[in-house]
Amino acid sequence: MIRNKRWLSSAIVISTVAGIAFSTLDPAVTPKVAEASSLKIQPAESVSLVQLAVPNTKEAMKKIEELGIDLTHRMHVHDGKIEVDAVVTPSEVTMLKLYGIRVKETLITENQLNQRVAERRMAVKQEQKLTATEETVKILRANHFTNQSDTFLYVEAKSTSGALSSTILTARWTENGEEKTATLQQIQDAGEYLYHSFMLPVSQIPTDITIESSLGGSATSKVTEWLGEEKPDKPGKHYVKNFVDHYMDPTEINARIENLVKEYPELAEIVEMPNKTNGYRRQAQATLGTLQNTAVVVTSRDWGHEGGNAISIELKKASAAGAPLSVGTSGSKIFVTLATDAAGNAKSTAKEVVDLLNAEVSDLVSATTYRGNAGNGIVEPAVYSLSDNLKAPASVLRDPFTVKAIRIGKHRDGSKPGVLGYSQEHAREWVTPLVSVETAERLLRNYSHDKETKKLVDNLDIFIIPSMNPDGGHYSFYDFNSQRKNMTNHCSPTQSDNGYRNSWGVDLNRNHDVGSAFDGYVGASTTNCLSGSYAGPSEHSEPESRNLVWLTDENPNIKFAMNIHSYGGYFMWSPGAYTPERETLPRPSAGEEAYYWQASDHILKEIKKHRGTVILPSRTGPIPDVLYSAAGNSADHLWYKKGIYTWNFEVGADLWNKETKSWELVGFQPPFEEGHEEAMEFSNGLLGMIDVAYQYSKDKKAPKSTVTPNGGRHEDKVEVSFKTSEPATIYYTLDGSRPTFDSQKLALNGTREGPETLTFEKTTTLNWFSVDASKNIENRYDPGKNKKYNTKTFFIK
């Protein structure tokens, strides 16, 4: 996943525009310069501000001048090329490309320019609204923590006027007897103000901190430890770990868990998913020609490994003048004789060759012109061999792949609470299967001699899927490291030449049916099959995503899940998506949110034990609050459709360099030494989540709740707050009726805030009860039947 939400939207615009406007042949093929007249010129076009990469030659700059390109004043030389900003139309871009001048980056479009006036009007209205009432400041969290090599102070604060960039929040605290100050950064996402924050290293932990606003508001809070005190990582005397020693492809992963089951048949079994993947396979292809209007894209009917790779095509000019276009075959060899004119020159166009191949040899291949080109250029003689371009060794099967889970537990009959860990939805995230395998190894190999491990295995039903995306995983290991999606090509023929082969596939973590792009949520594409976040042709179109649905349908005892991704060191939960207006999926109730935070505290402490890695408070919380909208993600399906408490790991937290005072990213495929450390610490975390499930299974104690004030008579309106003995959901009524599970639930007050309060302006009877995550009901109340609920009346004069 992309790590920084604040540049995500611009990055998407850039890559999309560039991908559409500048389609090329296979990167290994250098196209010849074609005449401008061979490509269609589009009239009456919009303009964009772009950065051009210009060969550092007089001819290139002269051509820009001849074409009358509108240049800005910004220009510099980088990697032997001139980079210059220009205002251009799509036709001008096409013209420039013919002379080796390409768009490096699209900076702004005409539509964006036209939005500026409307944006200003909205900003003025917002400023007037926010400054009309008295400002208040609230400190959401003030924490200190020690991460690897330094101690940090982290603060989040919120102002009622915080959406204004002119509202400046300043922190003041005392450190070693000296007053320190820092300006907080405004945090926004999709146009919504979330909060202000800052984080910096300190030499002494302050006892308290004050936040002052430029508009006059202020607040003070004690500084507490993020994650609190934790025991050192000292497992049982004979506890064994460090079971992974190299990155493993999905074939190796399956063999690993199968061998584990052979060793521990009384404690584990393999669960085979019913929906086989498309497989690590492709049709063989070749692009015949080097210019767009002369190129022919040929695709084998058979998979490459089943005969497609043996096909060759020879294009040869007829030896006689006035000869017709014809085709012949000899086994898997195709011979195309190009037509000639009266002078003996080849005259067959790409379109004519395409039509001939489709009419005469469709049992062997299909053909198209290049990316929708008219194909009116003359085809040149040459010989081509088709290939599926796959490079994995023979040990990686080319057939549809069975996704497998390892099921661990003394009682694997559904009678115990279920826990699910699944990884590698995104193929390039090589560390994530190591987390899963390491965890499975620890659970089984420590069972006989470690009482804590035995406790978990005896009382839980644990499912672990190390690789959700085996096809993409194999492709990432052997063909294209940065592969994110699976390998299924849903593109049209005009987007299916081999130059696009690294962009095919579906993002499995955008293919689910809750908060999906098909329902209008942000964070995935339903139209661009080449997009890195392509959601597929429909919800659950992919066998890989259907497998997750099947597993949770078949095992309703699953109550907890962890979706393991990389990188960036995030720890998140639902909601995971929002609309263009930033309306999120329904937030958890205040009690459910409190449980997410409480369980997270335990899990994150376990991660920290390995080498001191702290998942930052700014990267902990609901997905839209700390990252970005991810329409159609799998965790939302599990939470909203199944009621499963589901978290998302982003392993690979940034490393703090104390010397340079900077954070260093680790990437999807760090050196294995770092990847191993990430696997160890996040295996700790996954086991921490499994322990949360164990505590859930043993919790038989009902929560207690109180309200402040405690009913009674009041002169004016009254604001009522709730307090519970543990994280618990409050169900309440205000009309005198008995509360039930269909009653109103106490909600959150706002983004990153605690529970709401209820305001009564007239006499009101409040009836309520609380329920904890383990479904224990306060006072043994039977909702809607007996009268063991809480009740308080607030009399307002």
UniProtKB/TrEMBL annotation:
Gene Ontology CC terms: extracellular space
SUPFAM superfamilies: Zn-dependent exopeptidases (SSF53187)
Record's signal peptide: 1-23
The keyword Signal is annotated on this UniProt entry: yes
One GO molecular-function entry: zinc ion binding
Cofactor(s) essential for the protein: Zn(2+)
One Pfam match: CHB_HEX_C_1
UniProt keyword terms in alphabetical order: Hydrolase, Metalloprotease, Protease, Signal, Zinc
One Gene Ontology term from the biological process aspect of the record: proteolysis
Catalytic residues, chain numbering: 650
The keyword Acetylation is assigned to this record: no
Family: Belongs to the peptidase M14 family.
Name by which UniProt lists this protein: Peptidase M14 domain-containing protein
Organism of derivation: Fictibacillus phosphorivorans
Lineage, uppermost ranks: Bacteria, Bacillati, Bacillota, Bacilli, Bacillales
